[in-house]
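Q: Could you fold this chain for me?
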Amino acid sequence: WAEKARKRRSEEGLDEKDMRWKEKPAHDLRLQRISDDMADKLGLEEPVSAEFYRFTTIRLTGRLKDGVLRIRVSHLLRDAPDFVLASAVATIMLKRLGKSDAYYSNILKSYVKTNEIAERVERYRKQNARKELKGEKGRYHHLRQSFNRVNRRYFNNDIKGLTLTWGRAGRRTLGHYDHAKKTIVISSLLDSPHVPNYVLDYIMYHEMLHHVLRAHYRNGRRVIHSREFREMEKNFAQYKRAKKMIARVFG
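A: Sure. Below is the predicted structure, expressed as structure tokens.
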């Protein structure tokens, strides 16, 4: 099988020595070499074309086009060791062959769950997230005024350099802090005459805490609301009152 696969790729003009491979970036050439070796090992008949692709998360795809199995691996795995990339392409090839092997899938899963990779994925996702930004001034509330009230009372005016903006009218997410862009986004649902200052200030305080207390990773999972965060959150003067109104109106 291995010799047959190698011969077919050569006949199709898809050998690594082909100019098409030489024009590929170095990281794609590395992935191509790993994919060719794995195709030989698994006895895959079709020639393989492999490349890294800018997915927003860890994702692998493989489809047969013009007799070639075209594999795309998330660019977030470019720095992964060879054995991890080999496991990634193996899962796609085995699927093509109608087989499965937990050995390869477990290697990939273990690597993806590491704190370093989880943090890289989250950072890339946030940097490339599309947000509908509307500025600080709303129809009924001004975010800078809320920020100043909270900053003065709870942070001794020490927080500086943050961008504030109204965002989409999200009901499930009333606020969001983007660490990469140092931006607090508040749902425009809160820009209402029926929303008192203490509710807006509580959401602002919550997002400012995210700026102060950075998220960390535990076993590949991103921990946003740690025990320390929850304790500090309760320092907001009207914490229970604000939570109760939010649950009643937006819950």
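A (continued): DSSP finds ten helices and eight strands in the chain.
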